[in-house]
Each structure stands twice: as C-alpha cells, then as structure tokens.
Amino acid sequence: MNCPDCNNDRTRVLDTGPNADGDAVRRRRECQRCSFRFTTYERPEWDSLQVKKRDENIEPYDQQKLRNGIIRAVEKRPITDEQVAELLETLETELRDRDERIVASSLIGDLVSENLRTLDKIAYIRFVSVYKAFSEPQEFLKELDAVLDAELDDFEAPNDSQ
Fold this sequence. Notes:
Strand order of the largest sheet: 1-2-3
Number of helices: 5
Radius of gyration: 25 Å
Strand content: 15-25%
Shape: elongated
C-alpha cells in the first residue's frame, strides 16, 4: 500500500476492524517515511464471476475468451456480430441470475451449446465438438444424428397437426 502523501510503499497497519456497515475491513495505516496517517477499506469482490475449470482451478470469468470460442464456432456462418453480442449478453444474464459467485465451466459450455443450437445448427456442432472434446468419429456422428433427428421432428410436427 503506497502512502498517498509521499508515495512510499512502506506503510504499517496501526488498527484493523470492520467498517460501520460490516461489509469491509477498515485499516488505519501510517507511512514509515513521512509518518502520514491514512485509512484504507478492503471490500471483497463479490460482483466478479469466477469459473471453476475441469482441472478444479478457479479463474476469473473472461468474456473475451468466451467470445473467441463462439466466434470460432460461427465462423463463415450467417451470424452477425450483433447476434454474437446478444448471445453473450444472454449467457452473462443467465449466469448472474444464478446468484453464484463461482460457476463451473461445464455450465457455461452447456449454456453456450443450448443457445447456439437454437441459433445455428452448424455452429452448435462445431462448438460441441471442441467443448465435449470428441475423440472418436462415432461421438461426432452421434451428436450430428441427434441434431438431425430434432430437425426432422421440427419439420414433421406441422404436418402432423393437419
């Protein structure tokens, strides 16, 4: 912590305690060079979203990283930048509505998959092939069959009601 008076980085804590609201830690400090006294407040970063990866590491949510994955999936597809931005906004809203500070990367992947599936089937297949880390052609074919079956169900449903 640098002194606000002389910018010295050697300060000592004189007193520590909660602030009046109880949502922060108040620290009374003194500069070891100029003896200037000042107060700092430490608040937890509750608003920052954290992602728990498959390897159990936790890292800050990175919208750009998610955007890059979606952009790769929709590359050369008839998807606009506005649609990608809207998809990201929808995903972030869904994540924040869960009131969880730490979310699993698998949850994020599932939400992206669901949204891409309704937006563009090819982009969905591209995304899940990377997200689910297909190691065999049969896995890819199984997912493709599921998309095609759903497509046929959607195509046949209006005809059934006539």
